[in-house]
Amino acid sequence: MRGVIFRGLEELVVEAIGMQAWDELLEAHAPEGRVYVSPTSYPDAELFALAQGVADKLNKPLTDVLAIFGQSLFGFLAEKHKGISSKFASFEELVLSIDSVIHMEVKKLYDEPNLPSISAIVKDDKTIVLEYCSNRKLCFCAEGLLYGAAQFYSRKLTIEHPQCMHSGAEHCVLILHLD
Ligand code: HEM
């Protein structure tokens, strides 16, 4: 996973529980002297170990931590890549463009990024059905990113997750309900 994602996690942890907590997590779960550089790739296992470390510190399930992380990550990525995130006039427009525009732009900026496959279709004016597929199975993080995007556009969102890769499905189905 790219350094930019680790930096997003660092920002959240430092804001929520402080720099010392982040240093302790690094000491426990990353090689000595690790500094995350945005365009560089680091092992996925390291990100999962850090996220699990946060879950242990907060006594919360990993899935909750990934969702909270995803939510704050959206703001972090949108701020860092304003040129990409400012292209969309609405939440719906953004969600329908994750694969075809957002992650396509990411492919131009980062050498061979490892991205999920996300497709979205509008079911009616309040419902979008999204399919998520990735060997990383970060669907809870995807949910968080979507909540972060809804917050960005001041929209009220609830997500149903009736089909999940963690239960053996080929891809996750996320049903987005908007107010
Ligand atoms: C609601 C909108 C978005 C969703 C649902 C989403 C979903 C995800 C997910 C779940 C991952 C983790 C990788 C995986 O699952 O295999 C990911 C990776 C990533 N996304 Fe997005 N994303 C969104 C918006 C954005 C935006 C706005 C940017 C930046 C402009 C961005 C840039 C990236 C980058 C750089 C990675 C890491 C690629 C790598 O490690 O090689 N995403 N995205």
TrEMBL record:
Transmembrane segments: none
Domain Heme NO-binding: 3-161
Top-rank taxon, per record: Bacteria
Coiled coil: none
GO MF term list: heme binding
Any Pfam family matching the protein: HNOB
Gene3D superfamilies named in the record: H-NOX domain
InterPro entries associated with the record: H-NOX_domain_sf, Heme_NO-bd, NO_sig/Golgi_transp_ligand-bd
Protein name: Heme NO-binding domain-containing protein
Species the sequence originates in: Pseudoalteromonas piscicida
